[in-house]
Structures are given as C-alpha cells and as structure tokens.
Amino acid sequence: ALVALKEELHDPNGSFNSWDLNAATPCVFAMITCSPDGTVAALGAPNAALSGTLSRAIANLTNLQTILLQNNNISGEIPLEIGSLSNLQTLDLSNNGFSGGVPSSLGHLKSLLYLRLNNNSLSGPIPASLANMS
C-alpha cells in the first residue's frame, strides 16, 4: 500500500527518500508513525508540496488512525476506499485540489473524530451518511 501511495504522488521535496522498500519495517519511514505492534497507524505529510493522486491502496493500511495530508497539491477524487478504514480517527485532506463528490463511504468511519475537507474543489451535496456519525 505504501509503495502504491509513493508511486501515485509526486514528491518534489524528497519526503519519500527514506522509504527504503528493503527495510524490515515501514516504521522507520519519514511521514509514517507505527503503533506499538508495528502496524502503520498514521500517515502525516502536511505541507510537503505533494501532488498527484491519492492511491486507493491506502485502504490496505487497515490500522490507520490518522491521515494528515493537508496543505499539498493532491488532486483527483477522494478514494471511496478510505471509508473502509474502521480505525480512522483523523482525516485531514484540506487545502488540496481534490475534486468530485465527498464519498458517502466516509459515513462508515465510526471512529472518526476529526474531518477536514475544506479548500478543495469538491462538488455536490454532503452525503446523508455523514449525518449519522457521532
């Protein structure tokens, strides 16, 4: 999943340079935080000048609790697969170039406490599924 993320994002500042695919664990990668059991818990790359698209493979990081990708130039649609990340508590995709609608699948994120999607080029109504979130 991390390889797919790296391949679909352009990284002019070299933030991904520490991502050695031969490393025993991704826990040593910049922008990655792992839980005590060694699974990827957070992807944090705010203000990194990233562009390109956000890979649907992000959903394969099943233990993600935090995605902080604000203040970049990421475009395309928000992957609906993010809605399958049942442990996700924080999702900040603000200040990018995302387009299309807000995926209704985000309403499945029962652990979500913080959601920021402002300052993108999103269109359409806010899905009714988001109204059911606590």
Automatic annotation (TrEMBL):
Domain Disease resistance R13L4/SHOC-2-like LRR: 56-133
Name used for this protein in its record: Receptor protein serine/threonine kinase
Pfam families, sorted: LRR_14, LRRNT_2
One GO MF term attached to the UniProt entry: transmembrane receptor protein serine/threonine kinase activity
Native organism taxonomy: Eukaryota, Viridiplantae, Streptophyta, Embryophyta, Tracheophyta
Leucine-rich repeat-containing N-terminal plant-type domain mapped to chain residues: 1-35
Keyword terms: Kinase, Leucine-rich repeat, Membrane, Receptor, Repeat, Signal, Transferase
Location of this chain's protein in the cell: Membrane
Organism in which the protein naturally occurs: Opuntia streptacantha
Entry keyword Repeat: yes
Enzyme class of the recorded protein, top EC level: transferase
GO cellular component, one term: membrane
SUPFAM superfamilies in UniProt: L domain-like
Enzyme Commission code(s) on record: 2.7.11.30
